[in-house]
Amino acid sequence: MATFLKNLNAISRGTTLFRDEKLKSFGLNGHQVKYLFAVCNSEGVSQDELANLLFVNKSNVARQMTALEEGGFIRREQSAEDKRVSKVFPTQKAKSLMPFIRSVNDEWRAILCAGLSEEECGQLSRLLEKLVENARQWEGKVDKNS
Amino acid sequence: MATFLKNLNAISRGTTLFRDEKLKSFGLNGHQVKYLFAVCNSEGVSQDELANLLFVNKSNVARQMTALEEGGFIRREQSAEDKRVSKVFPTQKAKSLMPFIRSVNDEWRAILCAGLSEEECGQLSRLLEKLVENARQWEGKVDKNS
DNA sequence: TTAAATTAGTTGCGAGCGCAACTAATTTAA
DNA sequence: TTAAATTAGTTGCGCTCGCAACTAATTTAA
């Protein structure tokens, strides 16, 4: 069990490091890629929805959106129906970068899953999905609202 | 793939949160448990070895050892053979706490793995182990010494 | 034997993170 | 209809983290 968490840390760290390496020349760090990727896959998403999608606190979304906006990767648009809501859109610059970001992700997955069969890879995804569901259910129960 | 990393974050966060909840009354937070657990399972380990075991930067080990020492959970002893090395030992206080820490870990694993069979749980551990190995190999290749 | 290279540990720095407190907009109830 | 509760987003705080630069001890080479 202790092993378990340690392992997740190692993989998370590696992922960020890999993305850092590949994307720093574009003015993005390994953490920001995660946010930008989500925005590009859900254009017009609200910051609150982003926080839920990415399992991070909404304060981090606010800060990263400011950074990405200053970097010219996204723009925010106040929702007409609900003026509290900021809808987030990728800029053309971000969209142009997406194929490359996808290739970086693919490359990293290939490195991570080297030596695993397709079945094992799928099995792993499925099992992790289940664990996340369990974790979220517990987190919901203790009601750290976020 | 994007999903993949997000999932790891959610599980990591849940683990820390759970440990925070259960152990704060003992003066330990969710992160420190990880370090203390490793020390208790490898009495006399060096800080450098701890960093490798836990996949964290050695600077964090130094800081957490200072905190754990101040909290009365560990003591450091300069190695006689190599005066650069600090050997780290758990105090009696820490040892007494270990059964409880183990039960917290077990409880969390039970929550995480609810709905999974023994075989699936084992399979998951095995697959993650492989991924970590792959990640470490890549991290070693880019030589971020740490 | 002495000088250079390596190693364990520490510290300053900047970054990400979660939480709590806040503002402003919206919804719910009285 | 107005007051209370909720919601989206922002900001201050304190924590952990990784990196780089540093000290002191040790090992390697000249």
Describe this structure in words.
The structure is a homodimer of 146-residue chains. With 146 residues, chain A is mostly helical. Chain A has one domain (2-112): Arc Repressor Mutant, subunit A, CATH 1.10.10.10. Helices cover 69% and strands 8% of the residues of chain A. The first copy, chain A, is built from six helices and three strands. In chain A, strands 1-3-2 form a three-stranded antiparallel β-sheet. In chain A, strand 2 (74-78) and strand 3 form a beta hairpin. In chain A, helix 1 (2-23) packs across helix 5 (92-112), helix 2 (30-41) packs across helix 5 and helix 3 crosses helix 4. Chain A is globular. At the A-B interface, helix 1, helix 2, helix 5 and helix 6 of A face helix 1, helix 2, helix 5 and helix 6 of B. Chain A binds a DNA duplex (30 and 30 nucleotides) through residues 13, 17, 29, 31, 46-48, 56-66, 82-86, 144-146.
